[in-house]
Specification:
Elements: H1 2-36, H2 45-55, H3 60-87, H4 96-115, H5 123-137, H6 143-151, H7 158-200
Helix pairs in contact: 1-3, 1-7, 2-3, 3-4, 4-7, 5-6
Length: about 200
């Protein structure tokens, strides 16, 4: 009885966290769209445009803050979700969809945070990205190709900012929403199957 209660609580918690993940990814996407109206993805204009958003656009600073909190929150909630699913023994084959989508969503959330490090074009972001490019380039076989994709084949400049902006805003943001929907759907379907099994017994 006690084990069944804990399993029930963990299943419910996993579903609540999945709803939170979908909500956070949607908020991040919506605020990202609002920021994109004023953001200039160039080496010279990125910093100035974000500063203008924070100081000149009504509630621009708030939108920036919500966007940042939603992105960081998505990483945290995704990691907690994996732990909850593990504790609830949701690692059986029937939960494969929820597991794969949850892990991919966590990696996508981390990717969103990583691609954003250069988008503000600050000294810290620039040098951090430059150092991490060296790590990427050292990956056997594909390192140099990945570096060329990210930078545009040259130094860190406007093309690099545009590439990261495209990856961040279109590929990863869209992927995060799709994966969060798939993850929640997988959990709900498995919950439905468990109820059918319990009612049959």
């Amino acid at each position: 009885m006690k084990d069944g209660y804990y399993a029930f609580v963990l299943r419910r918690l996993a579903t609540v966290l999945a709803v939170m993940m979908l909500t956070l990814s949607s908020i991040a996407a919506l605020t990202g769209i609002l920021l994109a109206f004023y953001y200039e993805p160039t080496a010279g204009g990125a910093y100035n445009s974000l500063r203008a958003i924070a100081t000149q656009i009504p509630n621009g600073w708030l939108i920036q803050r919500i966007h940042s909190l939603a992105g960081n929150g998505l990483i945290g909630v995704s990691l907690v979700e994996i732990v909850v699913m593990f504790l609830g023994e949701r690692f059986r084959r029937s939960w494969l969809t929820a597991w794969i989508s949850g892990i991919l969503l966590t990696l996508t959330a981390i990717g969103l945070s990583w691609t954003a490090i250069l988008l503000d074009w600050t000294q810290i972001g620039y040098w951090r990205f430059t150092i991490e490019l060296g790590t990427i380039e050292s990956i056997p076989a594909i390192g140099s190709q990945l570096r060329n994709i990210l930078t545009g084949g040259g130094a860190v400049n406007t093309v690099t900012v545009q590439h990261l902006f495209t990856i961040h805003s279109y590929l990863l943001a869209g992927g995060a929403i799709a994966l969060s929907v798939l993850h929640l759907t997988g959990l709900l379907l498995q919950e439905k199957e468990l109820k059918q099994i319990e009612s049959a017994n």
